[in-house]
Structure formats: structure tokens, C-alpha cells
UniProtKB/TrEMBL annotation:
UniProt GO molecular function: 4-hydroxythreonine-4-phosphate dehydrogenase activity; metal ion binding; NAD binding
Pfam families xref list: PdxA (PF04166)
EC number: 1.1.1.262
Organism: Pelosinus fermentans JBW45
Record-linked NCBIfam families: pdxA
Family: Belongs to the PdxA family. PdxA2 subfamily.
Protein name: 4-hydroxythreonine-4-phosphate dehydrogenase
Length: 333
């Protein structure tokens, strides 16, 4: 049996619907999974018209009925947007609708009626204008599932990273680098990589400060918070190295292939190398939730929305990874 992938449509003023159409034009997705879109059917039909091709849409009442026929995009239709919603404009209606797609998908995921959620991008300003006051997808998913201890993992090219902190100011991020949190993220990395099929994950933990603090000369967090977390993870049987100076760790992971993943301390420490190495194919994975969530690692791209030229590779990779992880998590499928 194939896993059911719930795809949330994202902000309809951006490229979300278009990249979903492009990804679902690939027969390989239907060979390994059953996709269903949580969105607005008429907006998806508009996207098909923009992108071109022979695809069509149909409404399904339940995800269990979806994804059986290549060439037909099945939609759980919330019918919550006007057809003439303008492209490339921050619109509270689109932000509110994007939240509602996520909310609907999470309800099914918590009941295991879909086996992974794959999200198209939303616009944070539109989200807030629509009355949904969250920094982004990760925080929404945490709130809807009642989870507080989660993390963001990025997969791009030959590199994987997972974050100790994400959407907080850099000054605050330094204060949040604590032993318990670092250890928790190391364990999340270990568990998630096993779900991706890596039997014995090799984990590098990046330092926070230049040269990992140089024994306290450039900051004490590496010595007092990160090193004890690494030592405890080793005592638990995990293959962990660190803290590794952040100016060399990504080279060792992506080029020398010494590590399967790097635990990073703050948002840009992880995002910059991922986007350099795999901008078009990057995948965002939220770990620590009670369900699988993968996502494109880019935004709504208002500058090209509605033109049919958006690249669907990241959405395709997100669907493939979501299906792969679901087959491990739901071994009885």
C-alpha cells in the first residue's frame, strides 16, 4: 500500500499552486505515494491553466479516496478564496486560507489518515494580516499538534542540518544554546536519520563561537553547554563529534562526507550552506512532531508568481522524502 501525502497549498498569491502542479505532473510520485492537496480547487485549476499540461482536478471528501489516478489532482476543497485573488500581493485572505489548509491536514495526520504532510510556502506577513500570528510553518505545526520540543532539519544536496534555534533574533539565539536543548536536537537528528534509512547516523555538532570558543577565549557556550551535550549523547551510544568549528564543519560533512548531518546553533548557520549547495532542491523537515512534515525550502516568490516559470524541483524532492519517511514510519503499509 502506498502512503497518502497531504499537500497544503500554501499562499495562493505565490507560487505554491504552480509548483504543486509541476510536481504532480511527474508520474514517479504516483508510483510511490498517493498525493492529495488541501486547498482550493478553483485556485489549483487556475494553476494548471498557467503551467499547462493535461492534468485535471477533482474534489474528494476524504484523503482515503485520493491519489489513485495519475493525471488527476485530488483536492480536499476548502473553497475559501476568490478566483480573482491577485498574484504577488500580500493579502490577509490568502494568509488565513493557508493556515486553514495546514489546520485541516494536521487533523488528518494526527489520526494517521494521511501519512505525511508536505507544505507549499506561505507568506508570514499575509498570515499575520489574516489573524494567524505565527512566525512560520514550524511554529504552527507545533501549536496544532501540542508539541513544544521540535526542530527544523534542512536537506540540500549532500548536506543535512538540524537547528538548535530558528526564528529568534541572533542575540537571543546565543542565550538559548543550552545543554538540554542541544542534547535533545542531537537525539532528534539521530532518530530522524534512522527514519530516512541511515542505520548508524554520524552526527557533527557545530560550535557557536569562532573556533568553537578556543577554550573560552571567544565565548564559553561551546565549553559549558555544547561539549557536555555531546559527551552525554556519546554515552547514550550515538556517533557524535563536536563541537566542530563552524568554519570547517560543513566542508567535512558535504565534501569529505565524514558526517551525515550537522547540528547547527542558529538559523543562518544552517540555512546559508544549505542554500549554497542545494537552493533549488532543498527540503525542510520538521522533526519532533507526532507526524512527518516535509516542505520546500523557499518562499512564495511573488516576483514570478502567476508566470508559470517557478521551479518545482524542491516540491518534488519534498514529496519523495515524505514518502520515503512514511514507508519507514508506517512499516505495515
Amino acid at each position: 500500500m502506498k502512503p497518502i501525502l497531504g499537500i497544503t497549498m500554501g499562499d495562493a498569491a505565490g507560487i505554491g499552486p504552480e509548483i504543486i502542479v509541476k510536481a504532480l505532473a511527474a508520474k514517479e510520485i504516483y508510483e510511490i505515494a498517493r498525493p492529495v492537496v488541501f486547498g482550493d480547487k478553483k485556485i489549483m485549476e487556475r494553476a494548471i491553466g498557467i503551467v499547462g499540461g493535461d492534468l485535471k482536478c477533482q474534489t474528494v471528501q476524504e484523503p482515503s479516496l485520493a491519489g489513485k489516478t495519475y493525471g488527476t489532482i485530488d483536492v480536499v476543497d476548502l473553497d475559501n478564496l476568490p478566483l480573482d485573488l491577485p498574484f504577488a500581493q500580500v493579502d490577509g485572505r490568502a494568509g488565513k486560507a493557508a493556515y486553514e489548509y495546514i489546520e485541516k491536514a494536521v487533523g488528518y495526520a494526527l489520526k494517521a489518515e494521511i501519512h505525511a504532510i508536505v507544505t507549499a510556502p506561505l507568506n508570514k506577513e499575509a498570515l499575520n494580516l489574516g489573524g494567524c500570528h505565527y512566525p512560520g510553518h514550524t511554529e504552527i505545526l507545533g501549536a496544532l499538534s501540542g508539541q513544544k520540543d521540535y526542530s527544523m532539519m534542512l536537506v540540500g544536496g549532500a548536506l543535512k542540518v538540524i537547528h538548535v534555534t530558528t526564528h529568534v533574533p541572533l542575540r537571543k539565539a546565543c542565550d538559548l544554546v543550552k545543554k538540554d536543548r542541544v542534547l535533545r536536537v542531537i537525539r532528534l537528528a539521530n532518530d530522524t536519520l534512522k527514519m530516512m534509512g541511515i542505520v548508524k547516523p554520524r552526527i557533527a555538532v557545530a560550535g557557536l563561537n569562532p573556533h568553537s570558543g578556543e577554550h573560552g577565549l571567544f565565548g564559553t557556550e561551546d565549553e559549558l553547554e555544547i561539549t557536555p551535550a555531546v559527551d552525554e549523547a556519546k554515552a547514550m551510544g550515538m556517533d557524535v563529534t563536536g563541537p566542530v568549528p563552524p568554519d570547517t564543519v560543513f566542508y567535512q560533512a558535504a565534501i569529505r562526507e565524514r558526517f551525515d548531518i550537522v547540528v547547527v546553533m542558529y538559523h543562518d548557520q544552517g540555512h546559508i550552506p544549505i542554500k549554497v549547495l542545494g537552493f533549488e532542491t532543498g527540503v525542510n523537515v520538521t522533526v519532533g512532531l507526532p507526524f512527518i512534515r516535509t516542505s520546500v525550502d523557499h518562499g512564495t516568490a511573488f516576483d514570478i508568481a502567476g508566470k508559470g516559470i517557478a521551479d518545482g524541483k524542491s516540491m518534488t524532492e519534498s514529496l519523495l522524502l515524505g514518502a520515503k519517511m512514511a514507508k519507514v514510519k508506517f512499516a505495515d503499509l
